[in-house]
Amino acid sequence: MYQRQPSIVIVTRPTRLEGLRKRWGTLGQAKFLLHAARQIDSESETMQFLSSAPRSKTKAVAAATEQAEFAEYSDEDSVYQHAMEELEANLQFGCPVKTIDRAYVPNYDFGLASVVVVVGQDGLVANVAKYVGDVPIVAVNPDPQRIDGILLPFRTTQAVLAVKAALSGTARTKNVTLAEATLNDGQRLLAFNDFFIGAATHISARYVLTAGRRSEPPSSSGVLVCTGAGSTGWISSVFNMTAGLARFLGSDVPTARPIAWDDRQLLWAVREPFQSRTSKIGLIAGRLEESNELVIESLMPEHGVIFSDGIEADFLPFTSARSYESESANNKRDWSAHDQACTPPPRSKLRLECQYSRLSLPSLPSLPSLPSLPSLPSLPSLPSFPSFPSFPSLSVHDADPGNNNRLC
């Protein structure tokens, strides 16, 4: 039977300097266009402050700002490239090492990988975790001076030991609960932090929400569904707004507590629900346990979307049945139950459930035990000293018995 060879996949992201080069072709062209943009800004500032500052001084400040900004881009790129070179040189364990850009993550087969090394930022880790399945992730912070790295526990030098432990199966990992959205046409999407289900524009989203045995048709700004990792993100703003409004109205409600990353449940909340004759506000928020599901049926003929982790460009359409169009372009009618000439496309129905992934955590090696020290020799006992003669006891009494003032 064929046994797959262990492999390492390194996922990278383009730096801002690489983004400029990709957009404008060469760094020289990018620098020229950056200079032109600064010139426009400096001329605008010159018109505003012409009476207080010379034009030459304003141009000098703009030129210095331009040089500093481009130098920041260049330095950021150098640090990142140095981290990549160090990783690729040190991750040589006799198995294949493949480096891919984040743009290829959705189409890459991570089932052939033994460990995935993600080279910052935090958002890249969240995006990769949706596609790797149960393959352990080693998240590396390539530039601690610029990146906070909440999801990046490893430095470049520490990543080598973490990858080695993952290959040997001894790595300490942390389970992370993901949210999974499945449409009735078979399309699916995963979320590391949260899902947004609603309208792509600033209009009300219309849908039917089913939670447990309850079902109703809300009208709102959409629905948020978050994991434990995302419980301190977007959805927390909804809870903060709710608590603030309650305090404004004279009530005191506790703030929702975040859930653990590996907690097998999801949080969901309806954003800005509106009550009318056709919309209800009975289902506003709740917890989705592992064995349950949240079902949302779209009533939006257009502009309905589902996207995860704030990436609006990577969305699934979430629309209801469209109007039936006959052969004549001018003869358009809605489908009805009495229409036998056509069958309508089914309404988009969304089911939300839990999935799981693993992140490798730094594990410090145990320190060797210190050798026991030799016991010290016992000291000889000191000779006893002769006892001193006892002194006569002194009594203090008030010279004037009538004086009640006492000195303590």
Q: What can be said about this structure in brief?
A:
The chain is of the alpha+beta class and 408 residues long.
How is the topology of this model organized?
Layout (H helix, E strand, L loop, with lengths): L7 E5 L3 H9 L2 H22 L6 H36 L6 E5 L13 E5 L2 H8 L7 E4 L15 H13 L4 E11 L4 E4 L2 E6 L5 E7 L2 E3 L2 E2 L2 E4 L7 H15 L16 E6 L14 E5 L4 E5 L5 E5 L6 E3 L6 E2 L6 E2 L15 E12 L48
Parallel strand pairs: 1-2, 1-3, 3-4
Antiparallel strand pairs: 5-6, 5-19, 7-11, 7-15, 8-9, 8-10, 8-14, 11-12, 12-13, 14-19, 15-16, 17-18
Helix pairs in contact: 2-3, 3-5
Essential attributes:
408 residues; globular; disordered C terminus; Rossmann fold; 2 domains; Tumour Suppressor Smad4
- The whole-angstrom Rg is 34 Å
Give the helix tally. 6
* Parts with pLDDT < 50 across at least 5 consecutive residues: 322-345, 362-373, 388-408
Quaternary organisation of the protein chains: single chain
Shape: globular
Number of structural units classed as domains: 2
Q: Could you tell me the mean pLDDT?
A: 76
Counting helices, strands and paired strands, the structural category is alpha+beta
CATH structural class of the largest domain: Alpha Beta
Tally of strands = 19
End-to-end separation: 95 Å
Looking at the structure, the CATH topology of the largest domain is: Rossmann fold
The CATH architecture assignment of the largest domain turns out to be 3-Layer(aba) Sandwich
